[in-house]
Amino acid sequence: MTPDTIHAARNGHGLLALIERANALLASVPPSLPLLALRFALAVPFFQSGLTKWDGFLTLSAGAHFLFEEEFRLHIFGSEIAYPFPTLMATAAGIGEIVLPIFLVLGLGTRFAALGLLAMTAVIQLTVPEGWANFHLPWAAMALALMVFGGGRIGLDGLIRSCRFQA
Q: Which residues of the chain have pLDDT under 50?
């Protein structure tokens, strides 16, 4: 160690410099990587749920029918209200839970797909109010981040945007 290094270490500058270098390294991570991770993290639980709602191509499962007709209730102002048009709601939820996550993973219409999943999260919150801390809050936070920042450059949105500016 040089005298300057010893002096800097004694005065805490070595630790401060190390923290600054680590901070700079973390800040150098391309924003597209965490946005890609957010897209996948939000897409997976919705897609998995969507798979349970179908028995085949556009054939709603008996379980989905049962849940929306008999089990699910909207908890609004202390009341439990049956879903209006339960078959239509189950079909819309099933389609949304398949299509929107695919759009997120592809990075296509990311902001709008995230908005759709945020709206679904709000309805799910009204249906299962006790799930807010473990599920709905993280889903809403991920959707909001994707709505604000978009999907990043790793995705079809970024590809389309770069092609449009080159033309």
A: none
Is 26 in contact with 17 (CB distance < 8 Å)? no
Output the pLDDT for position 4.
Answer: 57
pLDDT score for 12: 57
91/144 Cα distance (integer angstroms)? 25
Backbone dihedral angles phi then psi of residue 80, each to the nearest 5 degrees: -110, 110
Alpha-carbon gap, residue 66 to 68, rounded angstroms: 6
Place of tokens 């597209």: 32
* Rg of the chain (C-alpha set): 23
pTM given for the model? 0.85
For residue 75, the surrounding DSSP H or E stretch is: strand 73-76
Spatial distance between the Cα atoms of 95 and 92, rounded to a whole number of angstroms: 5
> What tens digit of pLDDT does each residue of 17-66 get?
899 999 999 999 999 999 999 999 999 999 999 999 999 988 999 999 99
Q: Which candidate, 45, 48, 46, 37, places its Cα nearest to that of 149?
A: 37
Place of tokens 């150098």: 28
3-state secondary structure 38-55: HHHHHHHHHHHHHHCCEE
* Contact by Cβ (8 Å): 60, 87: yes
Which of 159, 157, 137 minimizes the C-alpha distance to 39? 157
